[in-house]
């Protein structure tokens, strides 16, 4: 897959290699990370603050390229994957929540009951989202892919440079 | 029904959160370099605004109003919003770890997005029913997402244009944003017709 087909590119560092050639990576922090107004909340400055966040962002890519621990690589996510993922994770639960809430309001005309129904609808919507996400993941649509090795001084992929 | 539709159009277009109320400008300038990332941020914000507005409505009705604690509104709402963001982050992580890798980056940023608090305060002032408040919050956040995507599209075009060096970067971004705000002012005519 050529790099220009990816909407989101990022630099990651290899932290583990599987015997089958797959690799575990963590996203590399950019120089601005931890310096913005949201730094205290975000915690993405990692070690020393909420270090587990970086650990939580560990992700796996399939084999096919010779990666070694410590390698810096540029990875990308498919063209529409981000939008599809956002629709699945956010829009789907909200739609179910509204549908259930609307029916409850129409039937009972009671705010408390409507609220309970909407909460239940949201929970149900999240279950539906989980199933949909599983289907997308199984189809490989959400999988990040190896694009190339990052240059030694490369810190920000071209697509992410502010215009 | 007609009132509800008008209220939603008003919240999304006429009184747009970004271009009319000037809330959420941080993400408006920061996450709009590409359409897909802007749409991702918009959807994440829509989810958080809607969920936290439902919770804020309940807190206002059954706690603050009931016990005369109105002076704690801002602090309480901030707490509710932070909790809603945390809940969303945990849920997305549980629903799909892959989606969390892709979208998790936006969630902490939403905590400090003043549009979320702004919408919660507006719907409380409006004294709406639960469904009305939720639809108002949803429409406001849809307006937010719409402007984010439009502005991202314009910035993608700007990236290909030959902009004078003096105006390159944020300056031309602000000029385009002001033109977009003026265009959205045209929607204000809808409310009087």
Structure description:
The complex is a heterodimer of chains A (163) and B (193). Chain A is of the alpha+beta class and 163 residues long. Chain A is built from 4 helices and 5 strands. Chain A is 40% helix and 18% strand. In chain A, strands 3-2-1-4-5 form a 5-stranded antiparallel sheet. In chain A, helix 3 (81-108) packs antiparallel against helix 4 (111-138). The radius of gyration of chain A is 20 Å and the shape is elongated. Mean pLDDT of chain A is 73; it is low at 34-39, 41-52 and 159-163. By secondary structure, chain B is mostly helical. Helices cover 77% and strands 0% of the residues of chain B. Chain B is built from 10 helices and no strands. The longest helix of chain B has 31 residues, at 130-160. The radius of gyration of chain B is 18 Å and the shape is globular. At the A-B interface, helix 3 and helix 4 of A face helix 3, helix 4, helix 5, helix 6 and helix 8 of B.
Supply the helix-strand structural class of chain A.
Answer: alpha+beta
Q: Specify Rg of chain A, calculated over alpha carbons.
A: 20 Å
Largest sheet of chain B: none
pLDDT below 50 for ≥5 consecutive residues: which ranges of chain A?
A: 34-39, 41-52, 159-163
- How large is the count of helical segments of chain B? 10
Helix percentage range of chain A: 25-40%
What is the distance, rounded to the nearest whole angstrom, between the alpha carbons of the first and last residues of chain B?
17 Å
What distance lies between the first and last C-alpha atoms of chain A, to the nearest angstrom?
Answer: 26 Å
Multimeric organization? heterodimer
State Rg of chain B. Answer: 18 Å
Cα shape of chain B: globular
- Structural class of the helices, strands and pairings of chain B? mainly alpha
Helix fraction of chain B?
over 70%
Global shape of chain A: elongated
Mean pLDDT of chain A: 73
Largest beta sheet of chain A, briefly?
A: 5 strands, antiparallel
Number of helices of chain A: 4
Spatial strand order of the main sheet of chain A: 3-2-1-4-5
């Amino acid at each position: 897959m050529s790099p220009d087909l990816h909407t989101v590119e990022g630099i990651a560092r290899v932290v583990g290699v599987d015997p089958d050639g797959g690799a575990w990576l963590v996203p590399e922090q950019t120089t601005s990370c931890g310096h913005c107004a949201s730094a205290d909340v975000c915690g993405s400055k990692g070690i020393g603050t909420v270090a587990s966040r970086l650990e939580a962002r560990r992700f796996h890519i399939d084999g096919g390229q010779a990666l070694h621990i410590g390698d810096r690589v540029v990875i990308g996510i498919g063209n529409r994957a981000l939008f599809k993922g956002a629709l699945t994770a956010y829009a789907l639960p909200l739609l179910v929540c509204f549908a259930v809430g609307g029916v409850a309001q129409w039937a009972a005309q009671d705010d408390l009951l409507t609220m309970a129904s909407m909460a239940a609808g949201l929970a149900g919507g999240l279950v539906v989202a989980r199933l949909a996400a599983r289907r997308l993941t199984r189809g490989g649509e959400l999988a990040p892919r190896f694009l190339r090795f990052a240059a030694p001084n490369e810190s920000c992929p071209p697509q992410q440079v502010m215009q | 029904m007609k009132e509800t539709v008008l209220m939603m159009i008003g919240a999304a277009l006429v009184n747009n959160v970004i271009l009319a109320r000037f809330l959420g400008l941080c993400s408006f300038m920061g996450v709009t370099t590409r359409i897909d990332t802007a749409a991702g941020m918009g959807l994440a914000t829509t989810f958080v605004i809607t969920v936290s507005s439902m919770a804020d409505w309940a807190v206002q009705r059954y706690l603050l109003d009931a016990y005369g604690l109105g002076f704690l509104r801002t602090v309480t709402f901030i707490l509710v919003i932070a909790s809603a963001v945390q809940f969303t982050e945990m849920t997305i992580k549980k629903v799909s770890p892959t989606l969390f890798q892709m979208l998790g980056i936006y969630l902490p940023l939403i905590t400090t997005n003043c549009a979320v608090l702004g919408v919660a305060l507006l719907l409380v002032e409006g004294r709406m029913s639960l469904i009305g408040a939720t639809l108002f919050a949803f429409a406001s956040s849809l307006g937010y997402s719409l402007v984010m995507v439009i502005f991202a599209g314009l910035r993608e075009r700007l990236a290909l244009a030959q902009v004078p060096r003096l105006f390159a970067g944020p300056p031309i971004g602000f000029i385009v944003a002001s033109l977009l705000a003026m265009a959205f002012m045209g929607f204000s005519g809808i409310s009087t017709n």
